Amino acid sequence: MEALLTKSGKPPARFRRESEKLVQELQVHQVELEMQNEELRRSQLDLQAARDRYAELYNFSPAGHLTLDRRGVIQEANLQAGTLLGLPRGELIHQPLVKFIVPSEQGVFARHWLDVFHTNSTQSCNLRFLSSAGVPLVLHLECQAYPNETGRLDYCRAALFDITQQQQLGEERDRLAFS
Fold first, then answer.
1. How do residues 130-164 score in pLDDT, each as one tens digit?
2. Tens of pLDDT, residues 88-135
3. What are φ and ψ of residue 170, in 5° steps?
4. Where are the domains of the chain?
5. CA distance 124 to 120
């Protein structure tokens, strides 16, 4: 350090100017980082608000929504899915969907399930489900397989629509038409 000092014991003017320049550059970088940090905070708040809106839309949708693994086991469910299947949604998790289908239609579901993963396109079918009231519900299912992080089709998103009334009205119309 002694070699860097002048006879007066102070650093040469050249070093002082370079030091001041470095300090000024560091201050500029600090301001830039603070601005970037503030922008990041705003982006995180925007992302959280968007996630909250999505969760609200998902949870309060009039359609039942499920995420199932490749075995047909429920991984996620919205509130309407719980209502349709007669259980609180927390109790639906880790249950096989086939458990809720009328036994005579479980084979139809098995074929539908194979098509979901073999065609990689949206598949739909109408099935009778067991209800908590003991009266079967007719639900329209729309299922689409989607990939995991590696690209393998391991999951399915399913939408469930209660078409029981429409089915009953159609049957009544047909009965009256042929009477």
1. 987 777 899 999 999 999 899 899 999 999 999 99
2. 989 999 999 999 999 999 999 999 999 999 998 999 999 999 987 777
3. -65, -40
4. 1-59, 62-175
5. 12
Strands 74-77 and 137-147: unpaired
Q: How many CB atoms lie within 10 A of CB 72?
A: 20
C-beta contacts of 132-139 below 8 A and 24+ residues apart: 132/86, 132/87, 133/86, 136/102, 136/164, 137/84, 137/162, 137/164, 138/162, 138/163, 138/164, 138/167, 139/64, 139/84, 139/163, 139/164
Q: What is the pLDDT of residues 36-72, one digit of tens each?
A: 999 999 999 989 989 888 888 888 899 999 999 999 9
CATH code for 62-175? Answer: 3.30.450.20
Give the pLDDT score at 1: 47
- Predicted TM-score (pTM) of the model is 0.73
SS (HEC) of 2-27: HHHCCCCCCCCHHHHHHHHHHHHHHH
